[in-house]
């Protein structure tokens, strides 16, 4: 039977990891997959995480199953992180947390929940969006549709986005990036979030907020403005949160599906269905990442260390954004790439074309996604002059 199976190309983002490893160019630069890098180009384990792991190793008493919703301590810690301390949504008991295998796992739970419990609803994503969104929802049997997000000049096309949202059929699902939009780095202002909320209300849409980069844009609370606004002003919201980036625990697969319902009764109904979806996918989530996060967030001391480290990472990225534009000045390209300093989060939609990206890879050993998305955390004071020279060469 297997003789009929065709080989397909691997994932475009994850494939860059292997391609980069194989490249022997000593000056090669990895701007591909979205992992944070420090000034030395490493992705170290955060100090708060190491300290939490030491405690876990010492105190762990069992490795029994943790249940389909995961570790309750994790859920109790993530809910206020995402929705805010003292959130009226939490006070009303309207929000449920389900620990998931990464943000991707949370998205798949959301997709299966929509497919099974809200049949007939299509899912609208920004154009462009994280390429894996394009796979996850159809894999659950859902139809994916797109609303515009970036214009031909590589700027946020908010008017186009809003006009398209106004045309979405009532009751459909609209996927919004909470912050650090992947792949563009263009985020909505507070005023724009307010306008989105109004349209979502008018059209009775169900927002699904992908929140994978909390703390990488402007700050933990600042980045949560959009999801909190929606959760506090709407009866129903789905949020998928990830601890991969802000805790640097990529390989531990630690995320959370947050379901916000009209009241506690409806939340419990929804929650019971999510447990079934999780059970049928993987039964229980992996425990270790959630235990690390719970250990940190339930300790004032570890939380303080974590905040400090996260602030360092965010500040480093934002400084590199400005330095990148500065490095292009001698080539007269600073205006052309000025957007990089304005965008937020790990990624920049640079405006480089797929052909330019290919040349950067083939001629200079610089790796990024063909859409022109660069992982800004891959910039460094050492490689910026080389990057600027290479970009000038392909312009
Ligand atoms: C990315 O977009 O590079 C990250 O979210 C990693 C991934 O899984 O694609």
From TrEMBL:
The record's GO molecular-function terms, alphabetically, read: identical protein binding; L-aspartate:2-oxoglutarate aminotransferase activity; L-tyrosine-2-oxoglutarate transaminase activity; pyridoxal phosphate binding
Instruction: Spell out the CDD domains in the cross-references.
Output: AAT_like
Q: What Gene3D superfamilies is this protein classified in?
A: Aspartate Aminotransferase, domain 1 (3.90.1150.10), Type I PLP-dependent aspartate aminotransferase-like (Major domain) (3.40.640.10)
Q: Which GO terms describe its biological process?
A: L-phenylalanine biosynthetic process from chorismate via phenylpyruvate
Q: Which residues form the Aminotransferase class I/classII large domain?
A: 27-391
Q: Which cofactor is essential here?
A: pyridoxal 5'-phosphate
Q: Which UniProt keywords apply?
A: Aminotransferase, Pyridoxal phosphate, Transferase
Q: Name one GO cellular component term.
A: cytosol
> One Pfam family from the UniProt entry?
Aminotran_1_2
**InterPro entries given in the database record:** Aminotransferase_I/II_large, Asp_trans, PyrdxlP-dep_Trfase, PyrdxlP-dep_Trfase_major, PyrdxlP-dep_Trfase_small
Transferase in keyword set: yes
The highest taxon in the source lineage is Bacteria
Task: Show the SUPFAM superfamilies listed in the entry.
Answer: PLP-dependent transferases
Name the family the entry cites.
Belongs to the class-I pyridoxal-phosphate-dependent aminotransferase family.
Self-association state and partner proteins as the record states: Homodimer.
Q: What is this protein called?
A: Aspartate/tyrosine/aromatic aminotransferase
């Amino acid at each position: 039977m297997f003789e009929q199976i065709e080989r397909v190309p691997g994932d475009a983002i994850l494939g860059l990891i292997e391609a980069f490893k194989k490249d022997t160019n000593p000056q090669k630069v990895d701007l591909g997959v979205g992992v944070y890098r420090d000034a030395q180009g490493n992705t170290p384990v955060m100090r708060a995480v190491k300290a939490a792991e030491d405690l876990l190793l010492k105190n762990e008493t069992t490795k029994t199953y943790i249940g389909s919703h995961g570790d309750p301590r994790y859920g109790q810690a993530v809910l206020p992180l995402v929705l805010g301390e003292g959130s009226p949504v939490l006070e009303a008991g309207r929000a449920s947390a389900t620990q998931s295998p990464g943000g991707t796992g949370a998205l798949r739970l959301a997709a299966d929940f929509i497919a099974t419990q809200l049949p007939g609803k299509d899912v609208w994503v920004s154009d462009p969006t994280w390429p894996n969104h394009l796979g996850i929802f159809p894999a659950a049997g859902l139809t994916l549709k797109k609303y515009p997000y970036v214009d031909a000049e590589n700027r946020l096309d908010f008017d186009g986005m809003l006009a398209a949202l106004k045309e979405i059929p009532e009751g459909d699902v609209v996927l919004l990036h909470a912050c650090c939009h992947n792949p563009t780095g263009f985020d909505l202002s507070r005023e724009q979030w307010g306008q989105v909320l109004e349209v979502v209300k008018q059209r009775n849409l169900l927002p699904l907020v992908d929140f994978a980069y909390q703390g990488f844009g402007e700050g933990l609370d600042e980045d949560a403005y959009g999801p909190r606004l929606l959760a506090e002003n709407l009866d129903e919201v789905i949020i998928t949160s990830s601890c991969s980036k802000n805790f640097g625990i990529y390989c531990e697969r630690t995320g959370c599906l947050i379901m916000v319902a009209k009241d506690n009764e409806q939340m419990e109904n929804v929650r019971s269905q999510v447990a079934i979806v999780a059970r049928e996918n993987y039964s229980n989530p992996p425990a270790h990442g959630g235990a690390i996060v719970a250990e940190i967030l339930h300790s004032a001391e570890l939380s303080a260390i974590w905040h400090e480290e996260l602030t360092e990472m965010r500040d480093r990225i934002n400084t590199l954004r400005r330095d990148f534009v500065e490095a292009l000045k001698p080539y007269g390209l600073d205006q052309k790439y000025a957007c990089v300093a304005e965008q937020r989060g790990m990624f920049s939609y640079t405006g480089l074309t797929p052909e330019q990206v290919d040349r950067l890879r083939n001629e200079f050993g610089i790796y990024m996604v063909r859409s022109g998305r660069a992982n800004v955390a891959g910039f460094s004071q050492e490689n910026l002059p080389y990057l600027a020279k290479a970009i000038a060469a392909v312009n």
